[in-house]
Amino acid sequence: MNQYSTQNLIKKLPGFTSCLQKVNNINLHYVIGGNGEPLLLLPGWPQTWWSYRHIMPLLAQKHTVIVVDLREWGTVISL
Prior knowledge:
This protein is mainly β. The chain contains two helices and four strands; from the N terminus they run αβββαβ.
């Protein structure tokens, strides 16, 4: 298995889950974790959710953190 796959990377962030959601016929990949007021993080091109890995656990202490990948990026990641 690819060490950089979402399946392997998400294991390094306990309490976070990788998800796919179809919205208006577009597959969106997002990672969610934590509790509290929702906080949406949007990475810029060419980053993915993984670019927020260092601050996600800290933010998740007081927020439900939702990191959405760019359109269709999550479809190439095997979940």
